[in-house]
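Ticket 4471: requesting a sanity check on a complex prediction with adenosine-5'-triphosphate. Repro inputs:
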Amino acid sequence: MENNNPVLELDNVKSGYQNIPVINGVSLALPPKDVLFLFGRNGVGKTTLLKTICGLLKTRSGQIKLNQEDCTNWPTHKRARHGIAYVPQGRGIFPKHTVRQNLVAGLRACPDRNADIPEQVFEYFPILKERINQAGGTLSGGQQQMLAIARALCGRPNILLLDEPTEGIQPSIVQTLQEIVRTIVEEHHVSVLLVEQNFEFGIELATHCMVMDKGEIVKEGDASEFRNEEVLEEILAL
Ligand SMILES: Nc1ncnc2c1ncn2[C@@H]1O[C@H](COP(=O)(O)OP(=O)(O)OP(=O)(O)O)[C@@H](O)[C@H]1O
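Returned structure tokens:
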């Protein structure tokens, strides 16, 4: 029987910076092969939440479970080895390193030390094979986003945290990215927590949607409930 236990669970998580509280008690459950779309205005805490989940920021209270294990106090690298991959806003690739070196860096998160770059990465993003010896910084914005996602896949994650993947990307590439994320969810059994300002992009991919305001989840439900003019107006008015 297929295991439907959540791959990621947050229970009343609080976090922030120094003495500034930002996340004020967030709870969520991400099922396998699910795309959870987290939407909200600038500055409400979406990036802070992703950083807390991957361990770049400390959880002040509450609990985070990764594949049923309490990871609340685990360091970032341990969470990466246990399945979390974070693709930050602005991509975070190494601009002076080649495409290959960027991908090899992603292998460090893989529990299997002998693992190589997965072939599917080049099927999804053939351009990366063509540019394999080129410096990451010479790629276009869209290609850098592809590289960032490809690097994340090198760690064989089962949870992908994507922060604003369409930011600054041409519309034609946005469409390609959407199809690839969908394929990755299907073929790699990956669940995605997606933060995105492009509501249409996010809601088309999503199975579930959450709206955040001032560090709290103020609305959540099936993505289908959000594909509705009235609800959309309500959210955009927040
Ligand atoms: N390093 C930091 N130190 C202190 N405060 C920070 C830091 N980074 C972000 N903040 C503050 O935390 C709050 C939430 O920021 P966060 O980046 O998580 O929001 P966001 O919803 O992701 O917005 P955006 O879409 O603009 O990235 C903001 O008030 C921001 O100013």
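Notes from triage: The first strand starts at residue 8 and ends at 17. Leaving this open until the requester confirms.
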